[in-house]
Amino acid sequence: MPEKVKFEISTWTVVKVLLIAVAFYLLFLVKDVVALFFIVLILSATFSPVVKSWQKYLGRVMSIIALFLILAAIIFAVVYIVIPPLVVQASQLAQSIPDYINNSNFANLRQHLPNIQNTLDNLVSNLGTLSSNLYSFTAGIVSAIFAVIMVLILTFYMLIGEQDIKKFVSFAFAENQRENAIIVINKIAAKVGSWFRGQMLLGLAVFLLDFIGLSILQVPYALILAVIAGLLELIPTIGPIVAAVISALIALTISPWTALFVIILYLVVALLENAFLVPKIMQKAVGISPVVILLALLVGAKLMGIVGAILSIPLAASLSVVILEWPTISKIFSKENA
Q: What contacts 255, CB < 8 A, 6 or more positions away?
């Protein structure tokens, strides 16, 4: 008879597992607060190198104030210059969807692909319910503005007390590991900050290139299509394809040739991006597999909707940094106290 193997689990181990499970459950209950705090951490990691380079000349507090004044000016310019035409174009696009669906250029496509016909018809029928949700939409905007203000305030204080916060976090480790823990935290923050800054620059570059190209081709709603392309730049490989398809469908309402030129435009932008922009902008950032991005998006959207989908990408970047730096982390924490 083979010998029986006994597994003994101590009471303290069971208690620790239960405590961890309760902690995760409590975090899930306050997931909105956790999401807001995670955004603050990302922004702090993103702007920290800028503050460190400026504080040599202005001092830390004045550098942070100058940075926030510049950010406020950028936000004001975007709200004043970009948002009004963007809202107008979005409204016009929503009102024009039924006409686009009935456009003769879509007739053959709808005839051969009935599923697309049903999807588009359902989309048109759902447009009528938008007005009934106006109150909820307005309340959501007010909540979003309040959340943005809170994020900026917390980011401001996080940048001011960055070193003290890192020292406070390091107290969670053994005394002989605290200095090494700060080193690891700095590495992760630097990598995540580089990734997020790179994504913002890539999104801005794609937005400008697509907006110029679509405007030259006289494609309707060029501004909103370029904004969509810039935002979808967060999703590697899949995002640019989705943006190109959306723009090509809009261009198809003008003529098949315009749609073809739009596809060529997006291909050229993608080639320029991969050949010149990505090697320069993202050379210090962490690359993330498109498969990981899609899985993170699905999990994030399932847990927290749109906010979760957005936050899942930098969270995936953070985890990828931890995995990438794990050999270094393990070596740092395996050092014995001299």
A: 105
Whole-angstrom Cα distance, residue 228 to residue 203? 10
Condensed to tens digits (0 to 9), the pLDDT of residues 124-135 reads 455 445 444 544
Rounded distance between C-alpha atoms, residue 208 and residue 186, angstroms: 33
Is the overall model pTM greater than 0.90, yes or no?
no
Per-residue model confidence as pLDDT tens digits over 135-159: 454 555 667 677 778 888 888 888 8
pLDDT at 151: 83
Closest by CA position to 198, among listed 313, 277, 296, 267:
277
Instruction: Enter the tokens of residue 98.
Output: 């039924």
Over residues 54-75, the pLDDT tens digits come to: 888 888 889 899 989 998 888 8
